[in-house]
Amino acid sequence: MNETIVNVANLNVHFGSAHVLRDVSFALATGTTIGVVGESGSGKSTLAKTLVGTVPASDGEVWVDGLDVRHATRRQLADYRRRTQMIPQDPFSSLSPRRTIGQTLAEAIEPGRGRVRPHRERIVDWLERVGLAGSMMDRYPHEFSGGQRQRIAIARGLIVDPTLVIADEITSALDVSVQSQILELLAEIRDTLGLTMMFISHNLAVVQRVSDEVLVLYRGVVVERGPVAQIFNDPKHWYTRSLLEADPGSPGFTLDATALDAERSMASTPRGKASHQ
Amino acid sequence: MNATVARPQTRRVRWNGTLIAGIVMFAIVALVAIFAPFFYTDQAAELTGNSNLGTVAGHPLGTDALGRDMLARTLVATRTTVLMALAATSLAAVVGIGFGIGVWLAPRRIRNLGLRLIEFFISYPGLLLAIIVAAILGQGAVTAVIAVAIASIAGFARLTANLASGIAARQYVTTARLLGVPGPRIAIRHVLPNMAEPMLIITAQAFAGALVEISGLSFVGLGTQAPYYDYGTLLSDSLSKIMTNPILLVGPAVAIIFVSMAALFVGDGLAAAANPRSNAKQARVSARSDKSTSLEVPQDALLVADGIHVSHIESGREIVSDVSFTIRRGEIVGIVGESGSGKSLTASVASCLLQDGLHASARRLTLGETDLLGRVPQPELASRIGLVYQDPGTALNPALTLGSQLTDVLRTRMGMRRREARNALVAAFKDVLMPDPEGRLRQNPHELSGGMNQRAMIASAMSVEPELLIADEPTTALDVTVQREVLALIHRLNSERGTAVLFISHDLGVVRRLCDRVLVMQRGQIVEEISSMENLTVEGAQHPYTRQLLAATPVVSVANEEQQ
Question: Does ipTM come in above 0.95?
């Protein structure tokens, strides 16, 4: 236990001339959950895609589960992607509308053939684990609510026994009460199976609830990183503080215009200054 | 990330007049094609002495040069013609879809080459291509079918390739790729089944085209050869008599038009059915006369809504039932609830906008002195109620500059001149603290961030100086820091100008910070009204649903508080 499973060092990603991730480094031990917070365009999703190997890094090192993701062969990558599962954000476009739930899950187990019958037991087992009935496997996605679909998406991600799970904004399209059920479910499964997880969200409260460690991204730069308690109780970087204060639930929240103006001028300072830690 | 919630796809056929007409016409064609040859073949081939007759008893459409009855011949020819058109369409569909999928699966260079090839053939007139192919292959029914099929392959291929690249962007395809599902399997399992509707539409249209083209080939003598005949050969036989016996042309001409119209109607009907336009349009809220409740109307009430009901017209299911509330001048009232609680519908009734298929009624609905029940002049309403929606990205037209689309509203609704509207908008932009307002007017929505676009929407809504601003989840698609800016803006406009605000949200944390009063909705009803924000806590709330919502809302805990 507690060996390092993800090791990212000085990772840089460019999209054309845009520098999307700058010198990102972090490590993740087996069985822990790292929360990644930041706003739209901060590079959260790009970081996830680089880990899965769908976005090429321009510089740096990405090691996951003993594999050098940047220099892996096609075959290695194909095998690796099965061990690293990404649970997508939108429960409405993540399930193929013309395939039953059973077929969707069977495809995860056996991508080439996707036969349902030989894997029936495993599919039923997983549907029950995510709080659905095994008999639902013959139904189509449109018969399910958003929360149920997200449960199915989680089952699809976990049914292959992944070593790393990347959850990308999986609750942002859900209602609050459904959101809290999904978070509970995910945390419970994670604890039972000892999963390693990267949890990406723009919702700080959600990240606080599930993470052991937090990484704050701002314009492609890791501005702060540390244990969850430290980041939330004693944020060092001004950007982390402003994120925390912008949450309507935090005591520092204000709708006073002058305080906001001061902050906005701070946010519009040149990029170079934003990266000091 | 933007939390844009995709609407679930509904797969119900929306019957419409065109579709029904097309199906009825097609059924007639099918019946004729199946049964006419059994009953009329002899009559159609019977040589009588009465050649070249006009309309006479027994021969309503006359007889041809050999004295054969034209009506019988037209009816019998239906089977051959329809079968040929069907064969050509199916051949084109199979090859075209196969080619399109192949192009989509191919590596990038080959794909680009394939797409160019498709474009080239698309730009070539179909009939001309068919004639060239038929001329090369020789005369005959089979070659005519092949020629017409080849001419319509490109259309299928292009649609398939375009649809495939659209579907490939969906998450379920991406996920399947990540899982390692091979390309051809993704095509068969995920891509093809999901393009069924548009394919059906283009197939119906292609059938109509194939029918006309096959008739054309037969008409010029490249298609069906004697003794067989179809609409085209009948038409060509009759053409020489056009001056002496024009009635002979009527049979085949009407038949060609009827069958292709049937196919086109089916196609257009399917297209209309697959693309339901559920745009909100002005709704008339009808008055209810049932006994009134004890709704207390304060003296400075701006909006009074008493007993709002919204129901689904088809199923009769009630979505909002008996919702009553008031908004005082200068007040910010929040409505919270989860998806499907009816909060947005309630707000849209208040602004007299409602989606198709819904029916709204209320005992009383007034804005100031104006009765909103019955017919309300739209310009007056537009100048008194401002609307802001959830996703500025979809509320704004990406192809137009902010200036042109936002001044449109002022010009059509408020009757302002161009210059006047522009100045009003610049002033409104300054009011919402947009940097460089004149420059922003010349920009397109995609050049601005989500927060800036939402500012522009609020500016536009406020530019008519409304008495009530209805904001439906205006910050849900925004980041927290941007959300706070937008909330601060609404807060400031409210306190400076006294504009009343109806704020719809699912986020209790946001509502607690902004609103004076909150209505909690569940399953179309108001379950609790909270008039003091201090009571918006698990302990202070009365109704179990409110408590449940509050308990579920994740809250950041900071500084020395126990971690979960």
Answer: no
